[in-house]
Amino acid sequence: MSRALPSMLDAERTVDPAGYALGGRAPRMALKPGSADEAALALEAATRDHAAVIAWGAGTRIARDRVPERYDIALDLSGLDRILEYNPEDFTLTAECGATLATLRQTLAARGQELPLESPQAARATLGGTLAANASGPRRLRFGAPRDRILGARIALADGTRIKSGGKVVKNVAGYALHRLLCGARGRWGLFLEASLKLAPGAESRVALLYSIGAGEIADAERWRFLPRLEPAFVTVLGAQAAQELPLQAGLIPPFAMVIGLEDDAAWVAEQERIIAEHLGLPIARLEGEAQAALVQKLTDAELHLSPRVSFTSAHNNPAILAPLISTEGAGQFVHHVLAGRLHWYPRASGTMPAEGSALFAAFGFTVIESVGVRYEPAEPAEGAILALRARIGEALDPIGTLQVPGR
Fold first, then answer.
1. pTM above the 0.85 mark?
2. 3-class secondary structure, 26
């Protein structure tokens, strides 16, 4: 930065920029503010000096192989990690954006509650990064995405202006929901400083059932029609390589594996197990309690275990939608959270997925939402309109491009 930093952002808040390198290139400066005021001051100074900023939490979701043309400052917000307010009776919590998901979960578990936000590497993943990515895992349908759980937030815009959006109670409807707009923007239009979220009661019983399945079974749509009506917490289908990450004995996984998760009162979970066994037979493995919760995290982590990756969204809730895709190259490399509508597909090599390849996914109702290590050529011209809308929002909230986002 060409001018002197504000006094509260002197050498005490600067850290080694080498730890924030992207694509082999480190920023000129790295700052780790100790408060929301300091974070806002850093953005104000950066905008004044036309310096480009990339926000960091734990860095778990940053595409390190693709860096914007401008990268002057790494702004590490992990120092903002306090729980500011917790109201168990109202099922609400307010925390700073640098608090980790693991810390929040530990706080809530003591009161039999949970914040059902899911992100890979939850021990390190921060609240702000999870919100900015609108990250979710296998239970997205049951609990919603981060934008469904956020009640309000304090936000720093690109020029350091601090604003408040939403509130701290479930029935709050005041103002524009900018806090929800920023969920999924990955820090491009503003940075979360703190957020208020609605909680959920912890489940009385948690069970995961694992099944071995073949390509023919996946293609049988009638076989799976009972599952959405049963309302399990999640249904995930995995290819062979992704299934190797599951905490199970070696040799149990055939070409494909299915995990069915149940979370509810004990009587209903037992009844769900009975119905599933009637349709699918006995599982090859059954996990419950903390072991089930650990498996849910493993399934969420699977998104980032393999690379390159292209992630899709879909409205389909039947595993049979995979049938036309699993005969293609790389069919063994995928994680599909069926009810959540998320497919993570792993091509065998990095490079470019041509339009004709993406057309196959589009033909069966899959829309790309992210690509890592793959240049994805969209088959749908509608994506151009979406990108144009994003550009208009960016021009309004950050006209000089202070905030940058690595990757696509």
1. yes
2. coil
